[in-house]
Amino acid sequence: MRRRKGPRGFRPLERDELARLTFHGAAGEVTGSSFLLETAGSRVLFECGMFQGGRREEARNRRPFPFDPAALDAVALTHAHIDHSGLVPKLVRDGCGARVHATEATCDLLRIMLPDSASIHEQDAARENRRRERRGARLVEPLYTAEDAERALGRVEAYPFDERFALTNDVDVRFRRAGHILGAASLEVWVRDEGGFERKLVLSGDVGRADEALLKDPEPPEEADLLLLESTYGGREHRSAEESVEELAEVFRDADRSGGNVIVPAFAVGRAQDVLHTLAELEDAGRIPVRPVYFDSPMAIHVTELYPRHAGCFKEPIRSALEPRDLHFCRTPEESMAINAKRGVTILSASGMCDAGRVVHHLKHNLWRAGTHVVIAGFQAAGTRGRALVGGARKLRILGEEVLVRAKVHTIGGFSAHAGQSELVAWARPMLANGARLALVHGEPDQRDALERRLHGAAPAPILVPESGDAVTLRRRGDPVVFAPAAAV
Fold it and tell me: Cβ distance 447 to 232 under 8 Å?
C-alpha cells in the first residue's frame, strides 16, 4: 500500500519503513512546534505552532507550509500555547480539511486563544498599513483573520485524557497529563501496518513541573520506540517552589516600602493564574501586604473563568484559590489606561514575553521609574523584549519611543511552567529504561546540548538532535529507529 507519487512535501515510504516523522519546527529552537508523520495510509501533523521572537521568526510564519495542507488526514495538538497551536488557522485557510484533535480543556482554550491571536494579527497589519500608506508602499495582509480562526475552530474535536482512540485507520493516539498548563498533554502514538505490526512514538509536548501547586502532576508513559522530549530548560534547574515564593514575597515587601508598582508580564494561560494563586496565599499568610492587583488581560480573565469547568485537571477546588483580596478585573481599554495614573499597585498583564498586548503600554509608563519592579516569571524566547530585560538592557524601544530601564528586573524561575533538567530526566527515565530511542526537540542549542550530556549514560543509543527538515523513520526490521538528516531526505 505504498504511494507511488505524493503531494508536495511528501515522499513514498521505502520497503521496510513503517512510518516517517519529519521535524518542521521546534528543532534546534523553542518555538514553531511542527512534526509531520507519514505512514502507508495516513499523513498526520502533530502540533502547528507559530515561530516567536524577532522579525526573522515573524517572516517564517508567513512562508508556505513545507507540505500540502490539503493532503493531511489529521492534526493533533499537545496544548493550546501559540507556539504549538498558533498556525492552525493558517493551515485551515491554506486548504487543510482534517479534524484537529486535542483534550477537552485545550479545545476550550483554543476558542479563546485563536480568535485573540487573529485579532492581534489584524491589528498589527492595520498599524503597519497606516505606515505604508503614508509612504505609498505596498500594503500587507494579516497572517490570518478572525474568520480564519473561526473556520479552524470548526475543525476542532475534543477528547478526554487516558482514552486511546483511532486518529486514522493506521494511527492511534492517547492524551496523557503533562502538567504545564490547563489541558496540556503528552501524546502516545501507535502506528501499525495492515498485518498488525506496531511501533510506538511519544511526543512529550511541554512537560510541567513536578508538584505544581494547582495542576495535577505530569504522568509519563512507560515505553516507546521513539521519544521526542522537549528541552526548553534542559540545562537549568529551577529553584524550589518555596524559595521562589519567598523571592516573590520579598519583591512585594520592597515595593511596598518604596511605593512603586510591580509589573508581572504573564502568559495568559497558566502563569497569570499561578501568580494570582500565589499572591492570594501570601496575603492570607500575612507574608505580604494587601495591595490593589489589576488583572489587565481580557484573555487571561476569560481563561481564569474557564478553570472551574475543568475541575478534573486540578488537585483541589479552584475558584476561591485564585483571588487576592483587592483584585480588579480590567476588561476594557479605558480600565487599562486608567492604571497609568496609579502608584503602589500590582499590574498583572499579558503578554508573557513583553512583545504584545497591554503589558507593553504598562512597561512604557513604568520602566523609567526607579521604584518599579518587573517580575519575569516564564521563558523568554531569543529576540523578545522580555529576553532583553532579562539580559540587562538599559534602554528599550517601545511603541516607537526609546524608554530608559530604571526598574528592578527580577527573574523568578520557580514559576516556570516547564520542567527543569532533573524533572525532564525523571519524566523520561521509564521510557529510556525500556529502550526508547531519544530525540531532543523544543530547546535552544545550549539547553538541548546540556540535556544531551546529562542523559548520555541513560539513553540506550546515541541521542538524536534534529534540525528543521531532518527526519526519522520507524522500521519493521533491523534498527527500529533510523535518523535521516535533511540533506539525505
Answer: yes
For residue 78, which of 174, 193, 6, 171 has the smallest C-alpha distance?
A: 174
Q: Is residue 371 part of a domain?
A: yes
Give the whole-angstrom CA distance, residue 15 versus residue 152: 36
Strand partners, 349: 265, 296
Least Cα distance to 70 among 47, 101, 95, 35 occurs for 95
Query: Are 156 and 110 a contacting pair, CB within 8 Å?
Result: yes
171 shares a domain with 83: yes
Supply 260's cell numbers: 512603586
Query: Which ranges of the chain have pLDDT less than 70?
Result: 1-6, 318-321, 487-489
Model pTM above 0.85: yes
Q: pLDDT tens digit string along 432-472?
A: 999 999 999 999 999 999 999 999 988 888 999 999 999 99
The DSSP string of 195-224 is T--EEEEEE--S---TT-SSBPPP---S--
Query: In this structure, are residues 388 and 396 in contact, taking their beta carbons and an 8 Å threshold?
Result: yes
The parent domain of residue 401 ranges over: 241-415
How far is the C-alpha of 1 from the C-alpha of 101, rounded, in Å? Answer: 26
